[in-house]
Specification:
The complex is a heterodimer of chains A (315) and B (920).
Chain A (H helix, E strand, L loop, with lengths): L15 E7 L5 E6 L6 E5 L3 E6 L4 E7 L5 E6 L5 E6 L3 E6 L5 E6 L5 E6 L5 E6 L4 E5 L9 E3 L6 E6 L3 E6 L3 E6 L4 E6 L4 E6 L5 E6 L3 E6 L5 E6 L10 E3 L5 E5 L4 E6 L5 E6 L5 E6 L5 E6 L2 E6 L11
Antiparallel strand pairs in A: 1-28, 2-3, 3-4, 4-5, 6-7, 7-8, 8-9, 10-11, 11-12, 12-13, 14-15, 15-16, 16-17, 18-19, 19-20, 20-21, 22-23, 23-24, 24-25, 26-27, 27-28
Chain B lengths: L1 H5 L91 H4 L22 H13 L6 H7 L6 H8 L12 E2 L20 H5 L14 E2 L25 H19 L6 H16 L45 H5 L56 H11 L16 H8 L17 H24 L12 H12 L18 H15 L4 H5 L8 H26 L13 E5 L7 H8 L8 E5 L4 H6 L16 E5 L19 H13 L21 H15 L25 H9 L4 H8 L11 H8 L7 H24 L36 H43 L15 H4 L8 H6 L1
Antiparallel strand pairs in B: 1-2, 3-5
């Protein structure tokens, strides 16, 4: 993009609401940016999945084919495919242009909470409340997963992938990291049910949100606690946590209708963004811009930094 | 055209074909009509019409009607004096369409050559007939003129062939090279079956002798079509019947023909045919009366048929060929056959030749010669029923039939078993499981057993003989006799009666011993009296008798079941160890100490478990990662086999823990957390730190942390317990759940609770009694009183929870729900999904509904929590009891999901210093 690299000065946080998407698909269970952040996916509780251009506020396509609520979705690196998981216990692989289900992977015994593509979109990793993580092959036609990671004692609430790692957060209060390179499983005990995990951009830290209203930043290699962030409210629901595009701040959704941002190093609350009255269900941070996607109730809002000028409003 | 006009100066250009019409400006190129839309029309543009009314077809007349567009109009008859109506005779043409009159119609009007004037060159037979007629005609050679003026009507096929270079009289096909020297067929070669006659198979030989230069090819020979006239009569093959002309003209005709065949072979083929047909023509046309110009010899044509020419007497030998008008081919008439050969009288079919050898005579098999005393009468023997009592009658009958059954071993076939039948049939024994133990014995042992068996049988026989005394009838029920009876039934197979594993009297070891001895002796063939001694001498006679019988029965039962069952089962190939089960080798160990570590924020080594984990090979491939364990076939966590029924598979046995002193650490964290949220200048304001942004976060953070630690490094001693945190409200009085949750997250330090509850013992609920057990337990730490207080606190909080769950239905001003609705809440594990519309901003009633559900769920989780809590307490109770027992603490193995509330209950394990924890 043409945006200049931000000066080493203070990084911007999204404070300004620039778009509101009325999704019209019931509760929006998840809002996700695609790989380059130009588009987004919203997962509705009315069994649909929608593709948007959030910057212009236009709906591009609706994907129908799930049997129940869609709970998570992810786009492939080349924007050609979408994977999604839903409460119908299935993981679906979609073709973006045709809008058809390419494949459906059945095997989970419960709701599929989270899905992720690997880097080359050859494997879909899905986590479910049946306490398993399943790795599905997109290349071959085999109907059963490549591998089932059933080490968790309770439901999987979040899955993230790096180039060679699978990071899972489970309700049994553990963050597990499966390293394919070294063939090791690291299991970090947090205690409280994990709602969301994510890698930092530099790949050295792991952020875990748990139901004790705390975000914890752990060192990936040693498991040591690097930071702890509190102030929001997360006791009941599965809420997302994010890191901003430069790893300077951590953000988390809250049940009080706000999105909180903390300084990553200092742990001080940097921003409390009032989004709405209801629970903020899902968060997604743009991969390169200070741009935040917030799903609350039936709508999705896009937030930009203060200095952002909605350039001429093209549409 | 365009090319010509443009290049007019270049006149020597040659242009082929016609140029396309030049495209006009703005004109669109016409699309070619696709094939399926192309329709055929006749010359007048009528659609799909090729046929007239008379030639039929799908479109005849005017749109399948006769007449015109106006319909069929009858012509009016008009006749006047001046203008008489002439009678019109309508021919078929008057009703025809023009298509019928066209070239391909039924009555073409074009001038065509008819068959009469067509060229007859193609029809050889007709041509021949015509030439013959010309020869025979009064003026010979007239027909030659026909050829001069004959118009040619030849078919298109012939014309095409001609254009391809075919000439009449040639065969069709590529030109062939003829072999210079034709091999004559070897006369010694035998021809079986349907060999072609030599003339037909090789073609005419008269062309062979010519000089044939190289590279000269010839057209293939023309093939005469095979005559395929079907056989319509019921005569034999080749039968022709009496030729009336031959019969009528008799010998004269024959002689006449003989003359021709004998003499003028050099005449043309054409005339040969003529001569052959001449005899026929004699009587019919009258044309050939008299002697023809080409005939040398006059025939006695006026001879009358006299009876003298007929035979009136049957003779042995006929001077002629004896055919008398049979129309055999000439060669058979003329040639004499060697003597002794079976003469075939009659015409040999075309394509067949007579066999040179007579076939071998059919062998006749005579009927079997009957025995001398055979009488062709069958007598039925009277059937003797085996169970017939009257043996005298039976014997008499048998004698009368003359067939005394002398062989007693000859039994009914139904009495035989499979082995006996097999022996009789001479089959080999089936390979399979050995039917009895006998098979496993060595040869020597078997021999010995057989000897023993025979000895016992002889003994038995002797016994029976001796007991055929008059008292035998009365002693039938005696045990001795029963022994024999049983023995007879058991036979030699009793030796199979197992000794080892069948224990029918295992409950009574004495009896079992007796039974084993009994069986052993029985196997050795001992007699009844000796068997008796194994029975209990203390028993009464009747009891002994009963036991005796019982043992026999048991022995029989065991034997039969053993031998019959053993043949049906095979041994297992693989030993299945039923009492082993696969369990993961490494398991995440107990969470109790982890929990304490978490509480102390001692993340890192304490909270981390590291396992060997084997990713699937395909997964590595898909992730473009080298397989870390290329040689292993394990996927996932490596597993080990453990005892299936071991308790340790289901309990994760924790290490013994001592009560910990956690207060100090708690304090540190608390103070740090209190310090942290204080507003201080952000790091982004500091300009000199901006350089560090490039560093990784972990470095950055560790730096910051070390700074922070330096600030609050002096560890707060336990003496200043009561100092901090007094501003916090008491959690017991808070009823709002959400608030409570928040307060749980940042709870006041232990000292506060201690300060409050140190004297209030009435707070102890019924559930605190097990905590009092813990009080009695000798704690390793020096501060026993503190642990009890902590227990108090945890107990308190649990009672808080209970109170909360009760009050939760009424909190936040929302109307309570009937508790019966809790059951219909759907499955909920872990964190729930947020409601769709909570505040009713979009639609009020929906939001309300959602809220209700939310409350319900909350309620439910609370209940669950409560249940868990109680469970936990129970565990603790057991645990404490266990501690009492062996002074060893056993952790409960429940690895259930720990809510934040669970942490409260685990306070009892606090009290260990972090250093101790780290040392472990």
């Amino acid at each position: 993009m043409a945006f200049p690299r931000p000066r080493p000065a203070r990084p911007e946080l999204p404070r300004q609401r620039v778009q509101t998407l009325q999704c019209g698909q019931g509760a929006v269970r998840a809002a996700r940016f695609n790989a380059d952040g130009n588009y987004c996916l919203t997962c509705g509780s009315d069994k649909t999945l929608k593709l948007w251009n959030p910057h212009k506020g236009t709906a591009l396509r609706t994907y129908q084919g799930h049997g129940y609520e869609v709970l998570d979705a992810a786009g492939s690196f080349d924007n050609s495919q979408i994977c999604s998981g839903g409460a119908d216990k299935s993981v679906a692989l979609w073709d973006v242009t045709t809008g058809q289900v390419v494949r459906k992977y059945r095997g989970h015994a419960g709701k599929v909470n989270c899905v992720q593509f690997n880097q080359e979109a050859t494997v879909i990793v899905s986590g479910s409340i049946d306490s398993t993580v399943r790795c599905w092959d997109c290349r071959s036609r085999r109907p059963d997963p490549i591998q089932v990671l059933d080490e968790a004692k309770d439901g999987i609430s979040s899955v993230k992938l790096s180039a060679h790692e699978i990071l899972t957060g489970s309700v049994d209060g553990r963050v597990r990291r499966y390293d394919l390179c070294t063939g090791q499983l690291y299991s970090d005990y947090i205690g409280s049910p994990i709602t969301s995990v994510c890698f930092s951009k530099d790949g050295q830290c792991v952020l875990a949100a748990s139901l004790d209203s705390t975000l914890r930043l752990l060192d990936k290699d040693t498991g040591e606690l690097l930071g702890e962030y509190t102030g929001h409210r997360s006791t009941t629901y599965r809420l997302d946590c994010v890191l901003n595009e430069q790893d300077t701040h951590v953000g988390c959704a809250s049940e009080d209708g706000h999105v909180y941002f903390w300084d990553l190093v200092e742990g001080s609350l940097a921003l409390s963004l009032p989004v709405g009255q209801g629970v903020v269900q899902s968060l997604a941070f743009h991969p390169r811009l200070p741009c935040l996607l917030v799903a609350t109730q039936g709508q999705v809002t896009l937030w930009r930094e203060d200095t952002f000028q909605p350039e001429g409003d093209p549409s | 055209m365009a090319a010509e006009s443009s290049d007019s100066e270049e006149e020597d250009l040659v242009s082929y074909g016609s140029a396309l019409q030049p495209l006009e400006e703005g004109e669109r190129i016409k699309k070619p009509v696709p094939l399926q839309e192309q329709t055929v029309k006749d010359a007048k543009g009528r659609y799909q019409r090729f046929h007239g009314a008379f030639t039929g077809g799908f479109s005849a007349g005017y749109f399948n009607t006769v007449g015109t567009k106006e319909g069929w109009t009858p012509s009016a008859f008009v006749s006047s004096r001046q203008k008489r109506a002439d009678r019109t005779i309508l021919g078929p043409e008057d009703f025809m369409d023009e298509e019928d009159l066209s070239e391909f119609g039924i009555a073409p009007k074009d001038i065509t050559t008819t068959d009469d004037f067509a060229s007859k060159a193609k029809d050889r037979i007709k041509e021949k007939a015509r030439q013959i007629a010309g020869v025979v005609a009064p003026i010979p050679g007239t027909t030659a003129f026909d050829d001069l003026i004959g118009p040619s009507k030849i078919t298109i096929g012939v014309e095409l062939l001609r254009k391809m270079g075919w000439k009449e009289g040639q065969g069709i096909g590529p030109r062939v090279k003829r072999k210079p020297c034709r091999q004559k067929p070897d006369p010694t070669v035998k021809i079986y079956g349907c060999a072609l006659p030599p003339g037909l198979s090789e073609g005419s030989e008269d062309e062979e002798d010519e000089y044939q230069p190289e590279n000269v090819t010839f057209a293939p020979k023309d093939v005469m079509p095979v005559d395929l006239t079907p056989k319509e009569n019921v005569h034999g093959l080749g039968y022709k019947g009496l030729d009336p002309s031959q019969a009528l003209f008799g010998a004269s005709g024959r002689e006449h023909l003989n003359l021709f065949t004998g003499g003028s072979e050099e005449t043309s083929n054409l005339l040969g045919d003529l001569r052959h047909s001449k005899g026929r023509k004699l009587g019919i046309t009258g044309q050939a009366f008299g002697v023809g110009a080409l005939e040398e010899e006059d025939d006695d044509i006026y001879a009358t048929d006299t009876l003298s020419k007929y035979d009136t007497v049957l003779k042995d030998e006929e001077p002629g060929d004896g055919l008398y008008g049979w129309t055999a081919p000439k060669q058979y008439k003329s040639k004499r056959r060697p003597e002794g050969e079976i003469k075939y009288v009659g015409k040999v079919l075309a394509g067949f030749s007579l066999a040179s050898k007579s076939s071998a005579p059919i062998k006749i098999y005579p009927p079997p010669s009957l025995p001398r005393n055979y009488r062709p009468v069958h007598h039925f023997r009277p059937v003797i029923i085996a169970g017939n009592e009257n043996c005298h009658l039976q014997k008499a009958l048998e004698e009368s039939t003359g067939k005394l059954e002398s062989d007693p071993t000859h039994q009914s076939r139904h009495a035989l078993n499979a082995a006996q039948r097999r022996q009789q049939l001479g089959e080999t024994e089936l390979k399979g499981p050995a039917p009895s133990i006998l098979e496993y014995l060595s040869e020597k042992d078997r021999e010995r057993l057989k000897e023993v068996k025979q000895a016992s049988e002889q003994q038995m026989k002797a016994k029976i003989v001796s007991q055929q005394s008059p008292n035998s009838r009365f002693q039938a029920a005696s045990p001795e006799d029963a022994t024999h009876k049983w023995r007879m039934q058991l036979g030699g197979q009793l030796v199979n009666a197992g000794s080892s594993d069948f224990k029918p009297f295992a409950k009574n070891p004495e009896k079992q011993k007796r039974y084993e001895n009994f069986v052993r002796s029985l196997k050795q063939g001992e007699k009844g009296e000796t068997l008796e001694r194994f029975l209990d001498p203390n028993m009464s006679e009747w009891e002994r008798g009963r036991e005796h019988e019982e043992f026999f029965r048991a022995a029989i039962f065991y034997r039969s079941s053993n031998s019959t069952l053993s043949s049906r089962f095979t041994r297992a190939k693989y030993e299945d160890d039923v009492d082993k089960v696969e369990v993961p080798r490494d398991q995440e160990n107990d969470i109790d100490d982890k929990e304490t570590a978490v509480k102390m924020k001692m993340f890192g080594k304490l909270t981390r478990d590291k396992f060997e984990w084997h990713p699937d090979k395909l997964l590595c491939k898909r992730f473009n990662v080298r397989d870390p364990y290329p040689d292993s076939s394990v996927v996932g966590l490596p597993k080990v086999k453990r005892d299936k029924y071991s308790v340790f598979n289901f309990l994760t046995v924790p290490e013994p823990t001592t009560s910990l002193t956690q207060a100090t650490n708690e304090k540190i964290q608390e103070s740090s957390s209190l310090n942290k949220p204080s507003k201080k200048s952000s790091r982004w304001d500091v300009s000199d730190k901006e350089k560090e942004k490039k560093d990784s976060i972990s470095e950055f953070i560790s730096l910051a942390r070390s700074k922070a630690d330096a600030q609050q490094q002096p560890p707060v001693p336990a003496t200043e317990k009561c100092g901090t945190g007094t501003t916090e409200t008491l959690p017991t009085v808070v009823t709002d759940e959400d608030k409570n949750q928040e307060e749980e997250s940042r709870r006041p330090p232990m000292d506060l609770f201690k300060a409050i509850f140190v004297s209030s013992s009435d707070e102890k609920s019924s559930s605190s009694e097990e905590e009092s057990d813990e009080e009695q337990q000798p704690a390793t730490s020096e501060r026993e009183s503190e642990t009890t207080k902590q227990a108090d606190i945890s107990d308190n909080s649990s009672s808080n929870l209970q109170g909360r769950s009760v009050t939760a239905t009424t909190d936040s001003g929302i109307s309570s729900l009937p508790t019966s609705k809790q059951e219909d809440a759907t499955e909920e594990f872990g964190p729930k999904l947020p409601p769709a519309f909570s505040s009713g901003r979009f639609c009020k009633h929906l939001g309300r509904k959602e809220k209700h559900r939310k409350i319900r769920e909350r309620h439910k989780t609370k209940k669950e929590r409560k249940r868990k809590k109680e469970k936990k307490k129970k565990h603790k109770k057991q645990k404490n009891k266990g501690k009492h027992k062996n002074k060893k603490s056993e952790k409960d193995s429940s690895s259930d999901t720990t809510d934040s509330s669970d942490s409260l209950s685990d306070m009892d394990t606090t009290g260990l210093s972090p250093k101790e924890l780290l040392r472990r």
